[in-house]
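During the second year of the project, the team shifted from modelling isolated chains to modelling whole assemblies. The rationale, set out in the original proposal, was that interfaces cannot be judged from single-chain predictions alone. As a representative example for this report, we include one of the complexes processed in the last quarter. Its constituent sequences, exactly as entered into the pipeline, are reproduced here:
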Amino acid sequence: MKEDNRSKPAEESAGSMERRPDNGRPDPSFVSVLEHIAEALTDHERPNRS
Amino acid sequence: MNDLTDLSISGAISGLERGDFTAVELLRACLSKIETRQPETNAFIDLRAEEAMAVARDVDDRRRNGDAVGPLSGIPLAHKDMFFREGRISTCGSKILADRPATTTATVLGRLDAAGAVDLGTLNMSEFALGPTGHNAHYGPARNPHNPDFISGGSSSGSGAAVGAGMVFGALGSDTAGSVRIPASLCGAVGLKPTMGRVSGYGTMPLSKSLDTVGVLARSVADCALIFDIIAGHDPRDPDSSRKPVDPCRAAAVAGDLVGIKIGRPTDYYFDGVHDDVARALDAAISRLGDLGAEIVDLPIHHHEPAIEAATILVTSEAAALHAEWLANRPEDYGRPVRERIETGFTRSAPEYLKILSDRQIRVPMFAEHMRTHCDAFLAPVMDLPTPTIEESDSEGGPASLELISRLNCKTRTVNYLGFPAITVPAGTDTNGMPLGIQFVSQPFSERLLFKIAAAFELIK
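Output from the structure prediction step:
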């Protein structure tokens, strides 16, 4: 008999299988991950270095 | 100036524009240097002097006629033998590709051609870009221009040797685990590994799709920036190339202070176990950076050891998939160490490989955020030991040699896992008098900041 997971906390029952917001589509390319990092960085106040 | 090959790219362009010398004369100076240095360095696989001369003559004609010329017009370059040019052979350092003309031209070569650069030929490399030493079973090792008993570093071995010897003004290489930064560092050159996706990989030999990055080796930070500005930017023929606009970097690669910039000093991993010579160079670099006004801060790295293993699994798995057919049909045409290294990829499982890729999508943004809260860029050694000799790093030399080889890219491979940009600049010499470089690593698409830091560091030597 399979264990009934329905009553377990979400992170224990779903774990790595839990869908991320953009799941359902293929993972974004790694380059787009890097682009998102760069975009997030520009949102933070930083000294002018140019 | 007596020897035109001693000029910077900017200096050479100015001289050409003023009419102090012609592109043909500049090329002849490089050919003369090659004639002298090629026998001891073995940097070139295929020197294409006649074709280069035809391009140089065309550049001179254009200038004489007052026609528009590109930003690198008349500048002699040569590139690692893995950037394909239609109708020409790129061996990729292998026997397998030694007789197959290419059917397309790499985007980066096309961009350099359009900028007027003079392509002098193809440069030695580790077979299929696998190996950090520059040994090659088919074409012989490229040798260090500062002392031919020592390795040039790999896999862009000929690029390091040719630039370090002053045979060319710059060279393209590829960096999957340190293959631009290591030879640049060992040969006394500047080497840039851009952000993954910043430079098109179309028409270049693939090794590991998840880690490959086209990079630049040059004699100075400014020269490196000039070439990078030409080759960077989106390419519709490369689906992995970023559409993010390019910040021109040449203007940032000038003397200046580093006030307001935080540079991280890793408190673990990168400085662990480094040789005394390397430690001294790092200490001196930190002192210099402080003198320039940079704020030096501690940067806990945490968890980079798994990135080494992850990068190794990505390279070997992806290389095994690419080479499966040749390994089955022509195993004897590979150098033994290269074949055996690729074959380890067949021992990896698909779930293991996919898990690494999936984890990377999460871990890298986490590290980026961790880094952001501490610093703008961090400092690290390129290698944790002095330059080895060719003999002591020969993979046929037994366990001690293999152990040494495995150490060569342990400080660079992790940056490929991150996909971040990094630049190496000369930072002194080891006790054998061989060049020793350090690297700066920064956030994705912040090459401009790297050039600013590297130029400031370089100019106070």
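The radius of gyration of chain A is 19 Å. Residues 30-43 of chain A form the longest helix (14 residues).
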